[in-house]
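Annex B.
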Amino acid sequence: MSVSDMFIALQGVLTADQDIREEIRREVQALEQTARELLTLLQGVHQGPGFQHIPKKCQKAREHFGTVRTQLESLKTKFPADQYYRFHEHWRFVLQRLVFLAAFVVYLESETLVTRESVAEILGIEADRERGFHLDIEDYLSGVLTLASELARLAVNSVTAGDYSRPLRISAFINELDSGFRLLNLKNDSLRKRYDGLKYDVKKIEEVVYDLSIRGLNKEATVGGGGEK
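Translin: predicted structure tokens.
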């Protein structure tokens, strides 16, 4: 084979790879649009009237995840199953955002932390990497850390909306989450940096709870019960 033939063959490989990446990018753009729609929907809970409509917003979000499952199913077909990590960078960010959105919905519904297996089920992908397109552990953890920041914001807005019991429940949840992350030996620099931000979320929520205590509203929350979910 001549040098010219060798480079023509190499160009064929490069072109095929570029075609795959372009198809993946198109699928990811559709996923990003659905994720934006989900985020816009769920951001409504931070507004005063939004607290009254949390169940409806969660139900609507579940419907959006049906679209997500369809889009991820299409994405799976755009590259060889054994090359997940070769192209992972293309969908890593949007998948982390979808994990956060799924975790937020589950928290709003039950005030519990969604498992990685449950998120994978919501998204219609695998939890086990041996089975193909799956939810990477670090992507799951990144999404959970984004949830912590969202709940810190929700704690502040809960007080504004007159829901004084919710910040207390959020505080207990975030402290438990922080304890869980302390059990991990995080090697990923990006994930470690995001985890370092968790202490600020904990502090922010503690300040909200302290303010309620100073104003005597924490007693009112305890006497008044769990409030609306």
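The domain at 22-135 is CATH 1.20.58.190 (Methane Monooxygenase Hydroxylase; Chain G, domain 1). The chain has two domains: 22-135, 137-218. Further annotation is deferred to the next reporting cycle.
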